[in-house]
């Protein structure tokens, strides 16, 4: 069996490892246009704020470590795959150092080309004081450029924008966070938490420009000038992080794709062409709360899907369970954990959904200290199924999102959450665990609404 893997960050690395663990004799050619593999972008903000000292520690695999997994493994760095010919089972790759182009045959191909950072429809976005934030080179560029910058503008109020705003406010930079029309972190939280998070940033000195759309960038030797629909903002550096889109041009017209360009795969990571598997940011996930394809570019999905592509290449072996797009963020001294649908997102999907919001101490008042947790539970008012949850606290509450993720996966209801067995120990909770209490609040609301 000859296997070609295109792209080698998380999905590609996971696919190669799993494939070779099960079938070490496989002939594998891995193509990566960069000079590195397996970079953990999730550490970029920690590096920029100084919590993690070295970017180089954020790689967890090397070409040599992959090549050691089997006798016929070749990792081709600085090789750009220019085309995939699915009918002839071959690819054309260019060696970016020599300019040589060569065809390679395959029996099975893994498409792990990931995503592009979205470049907003703004002119002047490629000027040197305007940077993107995606990979190792971007991280180095931002670090270098930010050294002399006193005022940094961040464009985009998703996870990455918020993390960068925090990082630079911790470093006593003047930070302006420019966020378009949706509320801060609106993919992840509903309005009450979005407001709390905005406040956390503004009390640390971050200037928040909400409902402000960046339209044009310009620069001189020292400054960048950002024209927005609400006037000009001047800074020393701008970092644009407004989301990602799938990088799938190589397979256009050759496999089924969604309108957003993400590749549609079956439960075994197989595309509509049985010899082409796909995983990671290039692919749509099966989003369990809606039962539909969704685009959720997360490392969690990439490693899971990559591993499954590797496991299923020879024969269907591991079935994908879908995802709730569970994720977390540390913001100053607070922790945010989320899973599934927000109420706004549920309504956009035409679900008859409702939510409860609860703020409570996580443990009894007789303990020497306790802190508040804010919790939001989103449920379907028709069948009382749990659809999503959000947790925010100084207490490390992010695993509550993992637990609700499993409940969504298993199609559990608010009634089951209200009474499911959970531990009690005053160090950790009250006689009724805070998740039981959240479920009970939802049950009371749902009963009162239907009564
Ligand atoms: C700043 C930042 C923070 C993040 N934080 C988190 C987090 O905390 N938690 C989380 O779950 N996710 C996080 N993510 C998302 C996560 O990094 C991505 O979901 C993940 O990188 C996707 O992995 P991938 O392998 O599918 O794609 P990518 O990481 O996009 O990698 C694709 C690879 O394919 C290569 N490639 C593409 N086309 C070709 C070609 N034609 N020829 C050769 N090579 C090619 C690219 O060079 C690239 O190396 C973060 C992302 C960023 C940018």
From TrEMBL:
- Pyridine nucleotide-disulphide oxidoreductase dimerisation domain spans which residues? 332-427
**Cofactor(s) of this protein:** FAD
Per the UniProt record, one Pfam family is Pyr_redox_dim
Q: Which SUPFAM superfamilies match?
A: FAD/NAD(P)-binding domain, FAD/NAD-linked reductases, dimerisation (C-terminal) domain
This protein's source sits in the domain of life called Bacteria
Q: Which InterPro entries match?
A: FAD-bd_OxRdtase (IPR050260), FAD/NAD-bd_sf (IPR036188), FAD/NAD-binding_dom (IPR023753), FAD/NAD-linked_Rdtase_dimer_sf (IPR016156), Pyr_nucl-diS_OxRdtase_dimer (IPR004099)
Q: What is this protein called?
A: Uncharacterized NAD(FAD)-dependent dehydrogenase
The lineage is:
Bacteria, Bacillati, Bacillota, Bacilli, Lactobacillales
């Amino acid at each position: 069996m000859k296997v070609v893997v295109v792209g080698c960050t998380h999905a590609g690395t996971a696919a190669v490892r799993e494939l070779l663990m099960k079938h070490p004799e496989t002939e594998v050619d891995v193509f990566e246009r960069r000079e590195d593999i397996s970079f953990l972008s999730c550490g970029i903000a920690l590096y920029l704020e100084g919590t993690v000292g070295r970017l180089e520690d954020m790689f967890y695999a090397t070409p040599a470590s992959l090549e050691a997994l089997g006798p016929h493994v070749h990792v081709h760095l600085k090789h750009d795959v220019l085309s995939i010919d699915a009918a002839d089972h071959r690819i054309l790759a260019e060696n970016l150092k020599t300019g040589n182009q060569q065809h390679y045959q395959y029996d099975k191909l893994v498409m792990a080309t990931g995503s592009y950072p979205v470049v907003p429809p703004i002119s002047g976005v490629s000027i040197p004081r305007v940077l993107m934030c995606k990979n190792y080179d971007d991280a180095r560029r931002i670090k270098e450029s930010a050294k002399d910058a006193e005022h940094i503008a961040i464009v985009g109020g998703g996870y990455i924008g918020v993390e960068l705003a925090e990082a630079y406010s911790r470093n006593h930079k003047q930070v302006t966070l420019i966020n378009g029309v949706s509320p801060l972190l609106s993919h992840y939280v509903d309005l009450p938490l979005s407001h709390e998070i905005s406040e956390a940033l503004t009390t640390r000195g971050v200037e928040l420009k909400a409902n402000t759309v960046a339209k044009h960038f310009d620069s001189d030797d020292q400054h960048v000038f950002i024209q927005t629909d609400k006037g000009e903002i001047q800074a020393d550096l701008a970092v644009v992080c407004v989301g990602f889109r799938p990088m799938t041009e190589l397979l256009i017209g050759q496999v089924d794709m969604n309108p957003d360009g993400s590749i549609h795969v079956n439960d075994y990571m197989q595309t509509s062409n049985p010899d082409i598997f796909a995983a990671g940011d290039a692919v749509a996930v099966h989003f369990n709360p809606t039962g539909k394809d969704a685009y959720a570019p997360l490392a969690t999905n990439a490693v899971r899907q990559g591993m499954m592509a590797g496991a299923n290449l020879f024969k269907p072996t591991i079935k994908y369970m879908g995802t709730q797009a569970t994720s977390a963020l540390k913001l100053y001294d607070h922790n945010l954990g989320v899973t599934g649908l927000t109420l706004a997102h549920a309504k956009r999907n035409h679900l008859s959904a409702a939510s409860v919001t609860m703020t409570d101490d996580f443990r009894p008042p007789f303990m020497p200290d306790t802190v508040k947790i804010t919790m939001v539970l989103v449920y379907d008012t028709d069948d009382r199924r749990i659809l999503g949850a959000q947790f925010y606290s100084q207490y490390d509450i992010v695993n509550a999102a993992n637990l609700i993720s499993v409940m969504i996966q298993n199609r559990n209801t608010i009634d089951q959450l209200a009474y499911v067995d959970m531990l009690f120990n005053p160090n950790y909770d009250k006689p009724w665990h805070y998740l039981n209490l959240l479920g009970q609040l939802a049950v009371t609301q749902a009963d009162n609404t239907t009564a």
